[in-house]
Structures are given as C-alpha cells and as structure tokens.
Amino acid sequence: MNILEKIVFVKQKEVSNNKIRYPIKKLEKSLSFERKTFSLVKNIRNSHTGIIAEFKCKSPSKGVINKAVSIEKVIKDYELAGVSGISILTDQNFFSGKNENLEKSRSIVSIPILRKDFIIDEYQIIESKSMGADVILLIASILSKNQIYNFSKVAKSIGLEIIIEIHDEFEINKITDNLDIVGINNRDLHTFVIDHNNCFRLSSKISNNYIKVAESGIDDINYILELKKQGFKGFLIGEFFMKKKNPGISCKDFIKSLSKKLNKIN
Q1: Which tens digit of pLDDT belongs to each residue from 158-191?
Q2: Is 165 a catalytic residue?
Q3: What is the pLDDT of residue 103?
Q4: pTM of the predicted model, to two decimals?
Q5: Which one is catalytic: 59, 87, 128, 185?
Q6: Segment-wise mean pLDDT, segments of 10 residues, the chain, 266 residues
Q7: Cα(145)–Cα(212) distance, rounded to whole angstroms?
Q8: Is 169 one of the annotated active-site residues of the chain?
C-alpha cells in the first residue's frame, strides 16, 4: 500500500465516524453555511503575483515542518503580505491538520480559504462549507470522472469554487464542467517525489478556459517567471514559507521580490 492508498483508507474511516458525530443537518446549521463566499478565481485574475500561501505543519514525506508557529499570526500575516488566497491543511492523521484551524482562520481573514484535504465523499463538501471554506480541492488520482462531476455540482450548489488537482496526462481526461481551477501538482502523491518539469509537461494540454495553478516544490522566483510564460496564473506555496521561523514575513518578502521582477519585465 503506497502513501496515498494509506491516506484514503484512513480517510474513509474518519468520514464514516464524522457522519455519525456531525450529521449533515447539524453542519448546515453552522453560521458559515449561510456566508457568502470569497472568490479565489477573481483574486487570482486580479493579482499581479497569484500566490496562494499554505499553512502546513507536517507532511508524510518531510515529517514535522513547523510546529512552533501560531496559526492566527501566520494566517493574518499571509493576508497582509497580499496573497490571493490561503490554503489550510485539515487532514490530521498525516499532516497534523485540524478542521478548527480553518474555522479559526475564517474568523481572522477576509480572503478566500482553500480547504486542502482528501475529499472522497459528498459529506466532506458540506463539511467544508460549514467550517468556512471558499474553495475545495478534488484530487483526480483518488476520484473517478463521475465522482468529480457530481462533487463539483454539489460544491457549486452551495457556492464553493473547485480546484481539480492533476499529476499526469491520464488525469487530464477527468476534467469536467463546473470546475474553476486546474492545479498541476509537481508531487506524485503515490511516492511524494517532486518533478519540477511536470507543470511544464502538462500545461499546454490544459484548456486556457481554466485558471492554471502550479503546486509543490515552488521556492524560486525565476521558476515562477517561467511558469507564467506557460500560462500559469496561480502558485501554491506551503513548505517554503512554513519551514521559516516567520512564514508570514517570508511570504511578504517573496511576493515583494516577485513583484519587482514582474514590474521590470512589464
């Protein structure tokens, strides 16, 4: 069993338990459920840099990344740095994430929040909305095309935007209507190995009707400039910021440097 299969196996049990503890009717009564969501699509389109900053304390491949920082400070600092959106890991077993981290973040910032998790059930989409998410991630390698289509319809019906995450050419065939953003992941989720050329390989095969976001292993401004030439508008960065003592300041400095370079080019 590879890492991804283990994650999905544990996730199935977790979702089953949550359905009993927090039934959908209860989730739909949360204050966040009636809230008008923020648009990540709009923010990326209007952004010069398109940075989506992630809060991630741990990963299966790297172990503990940063457990010393306060989510309140990091999230607020990300917003002040001028990010297009914030990604919050909510998987507890493999990433030390918590649903409460997203709920807490929603009360602190007024920009789009992506719930980063392994969504395998419609229940989690309702759950995402109830905790204050604006965007959900659908990972093509763990879902069928039919599931992606159905899940995206549910998400749209409650005002959520959707990122489909793909890693190879086979997964491009799973792109369906109702999706807003196509994320191309440089990390193979079966092995967690990063290939920086993956975004370049797949970008030309994705319709320009979708906003393209590059994910994983992004830590270099020049790499982003090359990705921009390939039509990428968004860049999801987590570990590079989170491994610093002050992730928010690291993010601010990175965006400032990127803006300077972009201004010179334009």
Answers
A1: 999 999 999 999 999 999 988 999 999 999 888 8
A2: yes
A3: 96
A4: 0.96
A5: 185
A6: 90 97 95 94 96 91 79 97 97 94 96 98 98 98 97 97 96 92 92 91 92 96 96 96 95 96 84
A7: 19
A8: no
| 129, 216, 233, 250: the active-site residue | 216
* Residue 136: closest CA among 179, 194, 93: 179
- Choosing from 14, 39, 43, 54, the catalytic residue is 54
Give the active site residue among 215, 233, 239, 252. Answer: 215
116 carries an active-site annotation: yes
93 is catalytic: no
Residue 34 falls in the annotated catalytic set = no
How confident is the model at residue 180, as a pLDDT? 93
Question: What is the 3-state secondary structure of the chain?
Answer: CCHHHHHHHHHHHHHHHHHHHCCHHHHCCCHHHHCCCCCHHHHHHHCCCCEEEEECCEECCCEECCCCCCHHHHHHHHHHHCCCEEEEECCHHHHCCCHHHHHHHHCCCCCCEEEECCCCCHHHHHHHHHHCCCEEEEEHHHCCHHHHHHHHHHHHHCCCEEEEEECCHHHHCCCCCCCCEEEEECEECCCCEECCCHHHHHHCCCCCCCEEEEECCCCCHHHHHHHHHCCEEEEEECHHHHCCCCHHHHHHHHHHHHHHHHHHHC
